[in-house]
Specification:
It is a single chain. The chain has 191 residues and is α/β, with parallel strands linked by helices. It has helices at 7-10, 34-43, 58-64, 77-85, 101-108, 139-151, 153-170, 173-190; strands at residues 21-25, 48-52, 69-73, 89-92, 113-116, 132-134.
Length: 191
């Protein structure tokens, strides 16, 4: 079944106000490669990095995080939406992802998205069209993408507008329902 997101709940225009805050929503687990994000945060010491989520790696991560990284724990969808409104950029540094639904939610919220080449990269987050996709584990590429997005508001807004158009066309609740129903019909027809 297609993965559906309540995009309308998060929907907002591209952000034009700078909050000097980058956000990540991720389980605190090895697969999310948060130490890579810590390395990126060290390149931007005046930027606040907010990581939403809980997991088995919390204690290890607290011991190595830079001072500008804040592990804020699990949050409700409403709280996440409010944090998105106060952020400039969404990042996901994972080593692997099943899909990355939170990237769709961040994009719907008006945030430009930078993610590693995993999950919905290439389908929803298309490099230089709807966001930035960087190689897995590549701190320099990730840092370069953050610098480009945070220093070029016009390009960031263009990525968000392109991404939101893609979301409306292919990932709205209506489109997801149609894909699900068509999938059921195909299963029935193949039996």
């Amino acid at each position: 079944a297609p993965i559906a997101a309540d995009l309308d709940f998060f929907w907002a225009p591209p952000h034009t106000k700078k909050f000097n805050q980058i956000v990540c929503v991720a389980r605190l687990a090895k697969q999310k490669n948060l130490p890579l994000l810590f390395s990126v945060a060290s390149v931007f010491p005046s930027v606040k990095f907010v990581i939403i989520g809980e997991g088995e790696e919390r204690k290890n991560l607290e011991g190595i995080k830079p001072n500008n990284v804040f592990l804020v724990g699990q949050k409700s969808p409403r709280e996440i939406r409010e944090i998105f409104k106060k952020s400039d950029l969404f990042v996901l540094p994972s080593n692997y992802e099943g899909w990355g639904l939170v990237c769709l939610e961040a994009l719907a919220s008006g945030l430009p998205v930078i993610m590693t080449d995993t999950g919905c990269a290439g389908e929803v987050i298309i490099d230089n069209i709807t966001g930035k996709v960087v190689p897995i584990g590549d701190i320099q590429s990730f840092s370069k993408a953050v610098k480009l997005i945070t220093e070029n508001e016009k390009e960031a807004d263009e990525l968000v507008l392109n991404g939101q158009a893609n979301l409306r066309e292919n990932y709205s609740q209506r489109e997801m329902l149609l894909k699900f129903v068509n999938g059921l019909i195909n299963i029935r027809d193949n039996d």
